Amino acid sequence: MPEKNTPYYAGSAFADLLRHDGGLPHAVGTSSYQVLRANRKHPEWAEDLGNTYNHGPMLTFWRGRFYLEYLSTPVDEHIGPGCSLLVKSRDGKDWGKPWVCFPEIMIPAGRYPCADGTIIEVPYEKPGFMHQRMGFFHTSDDRLLVSGFYGHAPHHDICPWQSFGMGRAVREVFEDGTMGEVYFIRYLDYSGWTEEKLPFPYYKRSSDPAFVAACEELLADRLVTQQWREEHGWRDEQIGIEMPRIGRRQGIAENSPFESASSFCWYTVGESTVMGLWKQGKVGRSDDGGKRFTTQYEPTFATSGAKSWGQKTEDGRYAIAYVNSLSSEHRYPLVAVTSDDGVKFDDMACVCGEVPPRRYEGIYKDFGPQYIRGISEGHAQYPEGAFWLCHSMNKEDIFVTKVPVPVRLEVNEHIHDTFEHINDWNIYSTKWANVSPYMMYGTDPCMRIADKDPCDYARAMRIFPKSKQISVALEIMAAGQYEAPLEIEITDGTGTPACWATFGNGRLRVKYGANAEDAFEVPAPPAWHTLEFRIDCANNTYAVLFNGKEFTYGLSRLVHKVNEVERLILRTKPRRHTPHYDIYPETPDMPGTDEPVAERVYFVKGVRTGENIVDKNHPIA
Questions:
Q1: Distances (CA, A) of 308 to 8, 320, 324, 378
Q2: Cα radius of gyration (the chain)
Q3: What residues form DSSP beta bridges with 102?
Q4: Can you list the domains of the chain with their CATH numbers?
Q5: What would the pLDDT profile of 559-580 be if each residue is shown by its tens digit?
Q6: Beta-bridge mates of residue 490
Q7: Residue 587 and residue 452: Cα distance in Å, rounded?
Q8: Cα of 535 vs its chain's centroid, Å
Q9: Which residue, 164, 219, 152, is CA-closest to 188?
Q10: What per-residue confidence (pLDDT) applies to 158?
């Protein structure tokens, strides 16, 4: 068998879709932050529109700030009116309020030609919408352009590009948050569009020669414009990369978008070699700087239609992020694999394994984190110490995920966190259920975990050395007396809980085997308490100490039999198991999700691990 020269996954680990994180190792310190929480009833808390279909995010980093673009429609995919919005952040964790960068437009009634020569009749004026396969472009003189594609569709089963597209719009983004006027950088004349029909002027009509030059620079970038292929169709001569179609995959119809080049991204290896990635496990290679690609379907990248993303990382290695699921309706977990040479990838790690409830019904709203993009090659700046991904969640909320570099799958030294930062924690933090570093009384660093979300949760996870026998201790405080408790688990590397406790409602509750018992009364807050777990996996037992006092119950069995433990998990609600991998329900709108509930706040500090100590009256060091 000839040696492979296009990207492939050489590992043997694959996601178990019975678990939202696939039962995979997590990349240490990887954290996900919610950019937008959709809200139909209170649009002023979201983006002032109340749209519940939000998808297709694009990300860049420019002049010390993150910028993210995403598309939005009221309810469903492919059904307008739709627009694109822009949002920015200084640190990638706290995001401001989005604003419209490409507004809604109307498609005039008329006759529109199709690629196969047929004519589509649009009998009345109808709303168009945005559909972007490319977002940001950095010019050589450090200007930032943002772009998007205006499309429409006769009905939701037809893709809003190629025969039904109007063209690609572009505008400049300025450092003070303002933007230039909207122009079309490319319109689809072969679909019947002319300058006179466009809702915005052609870029060559701009009175700013520097903006025109910026657009010309974008048009001249072969790899950037290749991202337009799917939307513009095969007739656009601007898109000049020679790239033959691959042979048909089983189950994919002839002339399907999946057979052509969908959602292109690339990274370079060496001087002139460019690796390309597309949807559905399609990979390619160019050895002439991107003029011609050879492509093939790579089954080792077990993925479907949720996009893949590849890039060179700060440590000189390579990473590919994708959804490790062959079910396009169940798009989880989001994983990353890494490589030394950009060809052979291994060490699969989960980087986002959360699937919150889908709050709003809508057409084609698949489950999970999906449509992954990162910061493209050629952008002027990149944040240090990590590579960043953006994605939608259930096609209604927008997230970013930070993956520290180098990517690590395990921790080899015992931990003693003092919480000047929480970089080594794996965080899942949303607008209404957030995790952040906090300075108590101005001098006491700790971690704050809060939740006012009626259906989602906040989660903080600390990976520690794999251990058969270990003590795990932390200091914890509740800001109030809450009926719903904080969940505390210690698990193995698949996420199977060995130890379980809840902290709240005036008591610490502990589970041994299948039995949950009220172990300790918790004095009224605010007060710090010490909680310690002493675990012996070989003997299937663990002990819980609260403020130095041990709780004993029967044989003190582990909740589940595990061979070793490696994760401390703090979560503001119980773990979730739905949606199930074997069903794709038409979930109706969830009631009561647009209003926050009373907030619960917890503080954690002094997290540490050590070898298990026989003398139970002796605290761990």
A1: 13, 7, 10, 19
A2: 26
A3: 84
A4: 8-404 (2.120.10.10), 416-611 (2.60.120.200)
A5: 999 999 999 999 999 999 988 8
A6: 499, 568
A7: 23
A8: 34
A9: 164
A10: 58
